[in-house]
Amino acid sequence: MNFEPKLPDASVNVPRVHPLADVAYLLVGVGAIVAILYVVLGFAVDYAVERMPPGLETALAARFEAERTGAVADPDLHAVAAVLDKLLPHTGELRQQYDFRVSLMANPEINAFVLPGGHIVIFRGLLDAVSSENELAMVLGHELAHCAQRDHLRGLGRGIVLAVLATALLGSDSGVSELFTGGLSLGHARFSRGQEASADLYGLELLQKTYGHVGGADAIFRQMKQNDLRWAAWIATHPLSERRIAAIGQHALQRGFRAGPTLPLALVERTAAP
Questions:
Q1: If you write DSSP's letter for every residue of 181-222 in order, what string do you get?
Q2: Which of 176, 146, 186 is nearest to 49 (CA)?
């Protein structure tokens, strides 16, 4: 009498694929979903920025005002504000969209940035580096461009999308909205090379409208050129100063802009007696 097993071959319950392969497939799937969401949020940045409620940008401005450190009651602030006032009448509707103002930060770096809400911050190092009113006007025009193109908001990236969605769904006073808004930081704001180049050309156009020529437009970049490292161009968000100078010159030539005499910048520290 022969015994014939009725149960199926036990080998059918043995997985044909190694368990680690299943884990790998799972990780790849999750990674793909995250990548798709990241890309979708990237496209959503522009949509969200263009439709950002004024109240949310006001909240962002208040957040960054609190974050800002090092601002000083500099005696040269009046001279900087006077140059800004010269530029604003030539900015069209932009001057109605923001309450522009300027402050000085006690920082030796040659730099400047703009906060949500239209607050431009100039580092003392930059103010000490500029040699004319026109040169400073080019810097201020560059920062105004970031507002006109809303780069200062796009630079905050996907955090803006989450903040706008939370505000739209839950209101600006909700705890979730405040959480997303509070999570945004100036340290995360970055501009692309394209945005920086576009801001340079906006500043050039504004310089022409304000002074009737573009004298001094590339002076600050010529000073910065000596600090550029060619190998760093591949990782830096700002274009090399050499390329910015070339782009400004080419645009001026195409538009028929001419150089002209620059105006002295009457700074207290330069005119004070020793």
A1: HHH--GGG----HHHHHHHHHHHHHHHHHHHSS-TTTTHHHH
A2: 146
Nearest-CA neighbor of 55 among 47, 63, 45?
A: 63
pTM, full prediction? 0.71
CA angle 254, 143, 71 (to 5 degrees): 155
- Indicate the residue type of 123: F
Helix or strand or coil: residue 17? coil
Q: Which two tokens stand for residue 137?
A: 């006007």
**Band of pLDDT at residue 204, cut at 50, 70 and 90:** very high
Q: Which residue has the higher pLDDT, 143 or 231?
A: 143
Assigned domain for 48 exists: no
Contacts of 91 (CB under 8 A, 6+ apart): 144, 148, 206
Whether 179 is in a domain gets the answer no
The CA distance from 81 to 83, in Å, is 5
Neighbouring CB atoms inside 10 A of 110's CB total 18
Please state the domain count of the chain: 1
Residue 17 covered by a domain: no
Single-letter code of the amino acid located at 26? L
Q: Determine the structural domain holding residue 115 and report its residue range.
A: 53-155+190-271
Q: What is the phi/psi pair of residue 72, to 5°? A: -130, 155
Nearest to 118 by CA among 137, 136, 100, 97: 100
Cβ pair 174, 166 in contact under 8 A? yes
pLDDT(184) > 50: no
